[in-house]
Amino acid sequence: TQIFNNRILKTLPIDWMRFKGIKLLIQGFIKETGSKVVFLGDNKDVWICGEEEGDWFKGAWYSNDSHRAQKYFGYDWRKGYINRQDEYLPAALVELDPNGVECVECKAIVSHDSVDYLDGFGALCLDCRAEYQYAL
Length: 136
What we know:
Elements: H1 2-7, H2 20-32, E1 37-40, E2 46-49, E3 55-57, E4 60-62, E5 70-76, E6 80-89, E7 101-102, E8 109-110, E9 115-118, E10 122-125, H3 126-135
Antiparallel strand pairs: 1-2, 3-4, 5-6, 7-8, 9-10
């Protein structure tokens, strides 16, 4: 992206986004490389080149799947390797339950900023996380 910016974009006229031909050339190059680039212009103009390669979720465009829930796989020192196909841990951008998260160990409901997702355990409140950290 930095090389493309330095060698191509910086050589274009300031108002290049007005020209359909230039946009088509840039779009072709970006798509050919499998990249995605968001251009922000004056007056809140936005052009997402490679938009179809990303996802729209709740009014925001994501270039990857970080907004989706993730399946949980991990190692539990009490049970060995586990593969929980049906259990999902929320990704950072998934809409979270406003009531909080249940700790898998003590069952306390805690705020989202007071929980840690630990492989082999799931969602642990910070007290339980500290206890397991000490035990290990």
